């Protein structure tokens, strides 16, 4: 099973992705985690990406596509995976389609978590107080929300048109949200 998680910053994609991956025994591939590792290790990709992340901007498509192609070709992806934080633009989605064809994989479902913007901002402010992440100050949070609305939300229409999109409310108890995701994935994936 190969899944994509979409949703604005703070909606709980990471939390729900980990629960889902544990349940189905699939690999959690978080673009954010991969990029943060690259940054902490001061790799070429990490140093390049940090300039964008620190401003709340998206890392360029060609950089992410190369990183994801390399990652999806590794042996540990053969039993399935969940892409968390990728793709974020139509161009990335089209690039992912080409990668998937080349490596003979397919996406089974695209799960979109949604929530009220004010709820998301409050979540991110609270998380930023404890995480120390450089991308969780109020101005950067608002910028990330606007970038999501402008660049990423068109993916909802893109995946809906090819009948892969599943929409799930991301507000509520973590276990209730997870139960809804599992029920829906079991039905459609």
Which helices and strands, and how do they pair?
Blueprint: E1 2-6, H1 13-24, E2 27-30, H2 31-40, H3 44-53, H4 61-72, E3 81-84, H5 90-103, E4 109-114, H6 117-131, H7 138-152, H8 154-161, E5 165-169, H9 174-188
Parallel strand pairs: 1-3, 1-4, 2-3, 4-5
Helix pairs in contact: 1-9, 2-3, 4-5, 6-7
Structure description:
The chain is built from 9 helices and 5 strands, in the order E-H-E-H-H-H-E-H-E-H-H-H-E-H. The chain has helices spanning 13-24, 31-40, 44-53, 61-72, 90-103, 117-131, 138-152, 154-161, 174-188; strands spanning 2-6, 27-30, 81-84, 109-114, 165-169. The chain is globular, with a radius of gyration of 16 Å. It has 189 residues and is α/β, with parallel strands linked by helices. The chain has one domain: Rossmann fold, CATH 3.40.50.300. It is 59% helix and 13% strand. Strands 2-3-1-4-5 form a 5-stranded parallel sheet, with helices on both faces. Helix 1 crosses helix 9 (174-188), helix 4 runs parallel beside helix 5 (90-103) and helix 6 (117-131) crosses helix 7.
């Amino acid at each position: 099973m190969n899944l994509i998680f979409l949703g604005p910053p703070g909606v709980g994609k990471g939390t729900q992705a980990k629960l889902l991956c544990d349940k189905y025994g699939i690999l959690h591939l978080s673009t954010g985690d991969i990029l943060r590792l690259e940054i902490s290790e001061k790799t070429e990709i990490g140093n390049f990406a940090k300039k964008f992340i620190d401003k709340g901007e998206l890392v360029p498509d060609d950089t992410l596509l190369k990183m994801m192609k390399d990652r999806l070709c590794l042996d540990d992806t053969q039993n399935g995976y969940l892409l968390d934080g990728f793709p974020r633009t139509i161009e990335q989605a089209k690039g992912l389609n080409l990668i998937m064809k080349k490596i003979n994989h397919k996406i089974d479902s695209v799960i979109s978590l949604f929530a009220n913007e004010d709820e998301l901002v409050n979540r991110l402010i609270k998380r930023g107080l404890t995480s120390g992440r450089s991308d969780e100050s109020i101005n950067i949070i608002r910028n990330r929300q606007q970038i999501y609305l402008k660049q990423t939300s068109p993916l909802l229409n893109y995946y809906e048109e090819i009948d892969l999109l599943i929409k799930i409310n991301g507000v509520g108890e973590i276990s209730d949200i997870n139960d809804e995701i599992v029920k829906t994935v079991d039905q459609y994936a």
